[in-house]
Amino acid sequence: MHNVPEVLISEVGPRDGLQSVKATMPTADKLRWIDALVAAGLREIEVGSFVPPRLLPQMADAPAVVQHALRHAGLTVMALVPNRRGAEAALAAGVHKITLPVSASEAHSLANVRKTPAQMVDELREVHALRRDAVPGVAMEVGLSTAFGCTLQGLVDEDDVIRLAVACANVGVDEVGLSDTTGMANPAQVRRLFTRLRAELGAKAGAAHMHNTRGLGLANCLAAYDVGVRTFDASLGGLGGCPYAPGASGNVVTEDLVFMFEAMGVRTGIDIPKLIAAREPLKAGLPGEPVYGMTPEAGLPKGWHAA
Q1: Which residues have CB under 8 Å from 19's CB, separation 6+?
Q2: Distances in whole angstroms, Cα of residue 219 to Cα of each of 2, 222, 225, 305
Q3: E strands along the chain, which residues?
Q4: What pLDDT was estimated at residue 305?
Q5: Residue 66 near residue 79, CB atoms below 8 Å
Q6: Regions of the chain with pLDDT less than 50
């Protein structure tokens, strides 16, 4: 039992990362990349989003990517869906989990999904009913976007964030997490907001999705861990951002996040050398696209072994 992972690292690069770059990664490269991530020990991967290809051509092959990912035993195959139509397509493809973006900022919500936060709660209710009646075994989560601030609106009231989280949970979703979409969060804010979220939602309080826009991504993840969060989104090579939030760049780098936890003695179940090797199919599929990460650049310390 001493090898059982203590935190879940949810890899979002194949969706959040790829939708944020101009180039479209060829499907064959996507599949090789996902295979490499699984080989490194990733247990949950957001493999795509079910949106109209005219809006995000990078995600046009989502059904085929899902079908390939489903071949990996023990992997939770997740996809983002913005509405009922996307949910119908994702559930038909056979995903294990769907995640819906609900923004705490009205300005970002209108830019991202063309609905207000209240309208998105109504959309959630429809998707929940679909999931309940068609495939109740599929998990359903919400990531509250711009929970820590918005480049369009500015400050986002923390009471509004918690009220929206409660509204989403009351619809019947399994988990509600908090996303620092624009990289505006700081550790004190993260501790405060996740403490409130966990007090309100209990077991339904979900993942921390942090960006490294201002260099605080790992610090914010550690702050969330300190108040009980055990699921963290990250992107290999720090790929990603948000195309509908100006200035939103840089997801937390999976390699650095895993190194931090393993160095602390917090088990992730992920093999760091294999994780670093998974950068190769990513770079092959997106030649010229910058990838980030301090751990891959510096290498593992002399005498390193996961604590």
Answers
A1: 49, 56, 58, 59, 240, 243
A2: 26, 5, 10, 22
A3: 8-11, 44-49, 76-80, 97-103, 139-145, 175-179, 205-209, 231-234
A4: 79
A5: yes
A6: 1, 243-248
Closest-CA residue to 65 (of 75, 74, 254, 111): 75
Q: d(Cα 27, Cα 184) in Å, to the nearest integer?
A: 33
Tokens of 178: 């908090």
Can you tell me which residue has the tokens 């509405």?
83
Q: What is the pLDDT of residues 196-215, one digit of tens each?
A: 999 999 999 999 999 998 89
| Backbone torsions φ then ψ of 149, nearest 5 degrees | 140, 160
What pTM value is reported for the model?
0.95
Express as a percent the part of the chain with pLDDT over 90: 82
What is the torsional sign of CA 63, 75, 267, 162? positive
pLDDT in the model for residue 241: 60
Please write the tens of the pLDDT for every residue from 221-235: 999 999 999 999 999
Residue 107 near residue 160 (C-beta atoms within 8 A): no
Catalytic (active site) residue 242: yes
Contact of 275 with 33, CB cutoff 8 Å: no
